[in-house]
Amino acid sequence: MAWDEWEQLKTEAAQRPTTQMQLNQYPADQGGDGTQGDLAAGHQDLEAVGKAAHDLFEDFTTYSGHARVASVAAAGGLKSEGFALGAALEHVAERWSEQTRSLLDACAHISNHLRFTKNQHAADDSYIAGAVSGIATLDEGFDDRKEH
Q1: What H or E segment, with its residue span, contains residue 75?
Q2: What torsion, rounded to 10 degrees, do the Cα atoms 22, 26, 28, 29 define?
Q3: pTM of the full predicted structure?
Q4: Most CB contacts within 10 A, which of 16, 77, 121, 147?
Q5: Number of domains in the chain
C-alpha cells in the first residue's frame, strides 16, 4: 500500500459517521465505575459463590470427619458384640467417606475454577489493552511521519 493510498483511506475513514467502533480508548462520556474494558472479573455474585463453595469445603471437611469417626467407632462396637448391624453401619460409613470426597472435590473445583476465571479475565483484559494501545502508538507513528 502506497503512502498516498494510506492517507486517502484515513481521510475517508475520518469522514464516515462516528458510529464506528472505537478501538483506542473508552469513550469518556459513557459513565460507569471508572474501570475500563469489557471483561469484568470481580463480580460480587461470583465471588459470593466462590466463598460459599470454599466455606462449605472447610466446614464439611470438619463435620463429616466427626460423623465418619463416630460411625466407624459405632460399627466396630456393634461388630465386636456380634451384631450384624455393625457390618451394615461400616458399609454406610465407607459410602459416606466416598460421597464426602466427591462433594469436597466439587466444592474445590468450583472455588478454584472461579479464581482461575477471575485471573484469566484480568490477564485477557490486560493483553487487550496492550494490543489496543499498540495500535494507537502505531497510528501516532504514521501521524508523526506525515508531519516531518
Answers
A1: helix 44-80
A2: 70
A3: 0.48
A4: 121
A5: 1
